[in-house]
Automatic annotation (TrEMBL):
InterPro entries, per the entry: Ser/Thr_Dehydratase, Thr_synthase-like, TrpB-like_PALP, TrpB-like_PALP_sf
Protein's name in the database: Threonine synthase
GO biological process: isoleucine biosynthetic process; L-serine catabolic process; L-threonine catabolic process; threonine biosynthetic process
Organism ancestry: Bacteria, Pseudomonadati, Acidobacteriota, Holophagae, Holophagales
Entry-linked PANTHER family: L-THREONINE DEHYDRATASE CATABOLIC TDCB, THREONINE DEHYDRATASE, MITOCHONDRIAL-RELATED
Entry EC number(s): 4.2.3.1
UniProt modified residues of type N6-(pyridoxal phosphate)lysine: K111
Pfam families: PALP
Family matches, as SUPFAM superfamilies: Tryptophan synthase beta subunit-like PLP-dependent enzymes
């Protein structure tokens, strides 16, 4: 760990580590559930110290970590593999294409990275209960990390979350409260809970260390691409915290003098859950009225980190686009069949965005080096692809029963 303070991403005020917990005390005053968060905090490190100590031969990511290792849960998280997929790259007119397989985290999604760090912070603070609202993956991640750290997890999820995710949470020993309504309703309830009854709130972007946790995916991408900055990184976007976290990784690397440019961040949303896309395109924020997408992990009415996600896209010279559920499920199948990586619909959304981008006027130039972040494991929701495939019927166990 390196010394750090918090800085408000809206007003720029800085605070010492234990002076604040969630939002900027000033800008957070104008926040109320039902609008994107205001006063989201970012960790600002001693970048000279990081730059001086970082060694590519033995990369120590703890230099970029805002919680001491002594408090880290004993469940290894992150360090997921990144596969180079040359065949797909050639087809899409790219120089290099990589798939970062974050579905191989312990609970099967990138959310483990955020839960890990918030659990470490809870241990540092001596708080034994962590509370979260989630579409599913953040909750199963929190439940897994809390199980390993000996902490309690209280989780509010929409009652329609995919079965596998609910099974995970219960099996890991969390207290699971399905909520009648949407993810946004669950979010509101969890805020009320921690305000009135206690515990540490892990809600995405609301707790600043969720962004810092997700940042580690970006740091690893840089290292796994050979300590080179990719030209573009494709990220599926719901609340906009993964894209904000990946951006923060490269911002930190640049502040430390380790890189000299940022990758373009390409945010991909489902057509019915497109609040951030419209915000980036028009500069005017409005909720997604009816997010019905099958990609449950990115189904969000009011994205918590809408402001931060927009900044990440703009500062990096990136863009956003939307894809239909049909494009998402086709992309999921194509990615599985072509690369061996089976990612849940929300994970495949990033690849669907790449396919769509390369077919249009804003295509990345030939020779570009791109990364797809596959954020969650396909086994978390087998119902989604089952709507498009059929399992072949059984045959008699004789060779003649097989077609030739
Ligand atoms: C949470 C999640 C996302 C979206 O991340 P946000 O920070 O909400 O934008 C994408 N894919 C998967 C699998 C997720 O669990
Ligand atoms: Zn502020």
């Amino acid at each position: 760990m390196t010394p750090f303070s918090y800085r408000c991403t809206d007003c720029g005020r800085t605070y010492s580590r234990d002076e604040v917990r969630y939002l900027c005390p000033e800008c957070g005053k104008s926040y109320r559930p039902g609008i994107p968060l205001t006063g989201v905090l970012e960790a600002v490190f001693d970048y000279d110290a990081i730059g001086a100590a970082f060694d590519q031969a033995r990369p120590d990511w703890n230099l970029f970590c805002p919680v001491e290792t002594a408090f880290h849960p004993p469940l290894p998280v992150g360090n997921t593999p990144m596969a180079r997929v040359d065949r797909l790259a050639a087809e899409l007119g790219l120089g290099e294409l990589w798939v970062k397989n974050d579905g191989l985290n312990p609970s099967g999604s990138l959310k483990d990275r955020a839960s890990f760090l918030v659990a470490a912070e809870a241990r540092r603070l001596g708080i034994d209960l962590i509370v979260a609202a989630s579409t599913g993956n953040a909750a199963s991640a929190l439940a897994a990390v809390c199980a390993s750290a000996g902490l309690k997890a209280l989780i509010f999820v929409p009652e329609k979350a995919p079965k596998a995710k609910l099974v995970q949470m219960v099996l890991y020993g969390a207290t699971v409260v399905p909520v009648k309504g949407t993810y946004d309703d669950a979010f509101r309830l969890s805020l009320e809970y921690t305000e009135k009854r206690g515990g540490l709130n892990r809600n995405t972007a609301y707790h600043p260390l969720t962004i810092e946790g997700k940042k580690t995916a970006g740091l690893e991408i840089w290292a796994q691409a050979g300590f080179r900055v990719p030209d573009a990184i494709f990220v599926s976007v719901g609340d906009g915290v993964i894209i904000g976290g990946v951006h923060k990784a490269f911002v930190d690397l640049r502040r430390a003098g380790l890189i000299d440019r940022l990758p373009r961040l390409i945010g991909v949303q489902a057509e019915s859950s497109d609040a951030i896309h419209r915000y980036v395109e028009t500069g005017v924020y409005a909720d997604a009225a009816n997010p019905t997408t099958r990609a449950d992990s990115i189904s969000v009415t009011c994205p918590s980190n809408a402001h931060g996600a927009r900044r990440a896209v703009q500062e990096s010279g990136g863009l956003t686009l939307t894809v239909t559920d049909d494009e998402i499920l086709s992309a999921q199948a194509a990615l599985a069949a072509r690369t061996g990586i089976f990612t849940e619909p929300a994970g495949a959304t990033a690849y669907a965005g790449l396919v769509k981008l390369q077919a249009g006027a804003k295509a990345l130039p030939s020779g570009a080096r791109a990364v797809i972040l596959a954020t969650g494991n396909g086994l978390k929701d087998v119902e989604a692809p089952l709507s498009r495939i059929s399992i072949p019927p059984a045959i008699e166990p004789r060779l003649e029963s097989l077609p030739r």
